[in-house]
Each structure stands twice: as C-alpha cells, then as structure tokens.
Design brief:
The protein contains 4 helices and no strands. The chain has 106 residues and is an all-alpha fold. It has one domain. The chain starts with a helix and ends with a helix.
Length: 106
C-alpha cells in the first residue's frame, strides 16, 4: 500500500511542476488559481511522501519519489510546454527509469 502512496506522491510532484509551468505568463485570478494548485499539490506530495516513509526506507522512497517527479516533469515539459524531445533527454530519462526500477528491486 505504501508503494501506491509513494507513486501518488510522485504524481502530485508532477502536478506542482505543471502548475509552476502554467503560472509563467499568467496574471490576475488565473495566477492565483495556478498558485493555489501549486500549493495544494506540494502539500499533498509532501504529506504522502512522509506517510510512505513510515514503512519504506527513506534511502529508497526519496529517490523513487524524486525520480517519478523528474521523469514526469520532463514528459509534461515535452507534451504540454513544447520542450525539445532530444535523443539525449530521452536517453537520460530512460536511465533514470531503469535506476528507479533497480532501487525498487533491491
């Protein structure tokens, strides 16, 4: 169950980076809506991470959480913010995924 909580925490990390990306270039009420989404996502991500680390080793949980956020953020950048999907970015994202799976397996 705590692995599921950790994965959800990582997805909320992706949510807060998406909100952060949307804040750029906004003003007025839209700025505050995305800002609220950012604060809520950060809070939920951290609370769920803390919950998951009650039974999972911190040396595994934190890198997995960070990796989910990193890979998710790169994908969000490519899909929603038109960032380049270069061979180098895709290669290193793949190695990060392999490392996360390796941490889970050992």
């Amino acid at each position: 169950m705590n692995w599921i909580i950790l994965i959800i925490a990582g997805l909320f990390e992706v949510c807060f980076t998406y909100c952060l990306g949307k804040i750029k270039g906004t003003v007025g009420p839209e700025y505050y809506l995305w800002g609220t989404g950012f604060v809520v996502s950060v809070t939920l991500s951290m609370l769920l991470l803390a919950k998951a680390t009650q039974t999972l080793p911190i040396g595994t949980a934190y890198p997995v959480w960070t990796g989910i956020g990193a890979v998710g953020t790169v994908l969000v950048g490519i899909l929603f913010f038109h960032e380049p999907a270069t061979l180098g970015r895709l290669f290193f994202m793949t190695t990060l995924i392999i490392s996360i799976v390796g941490l889970k397996l050992i």
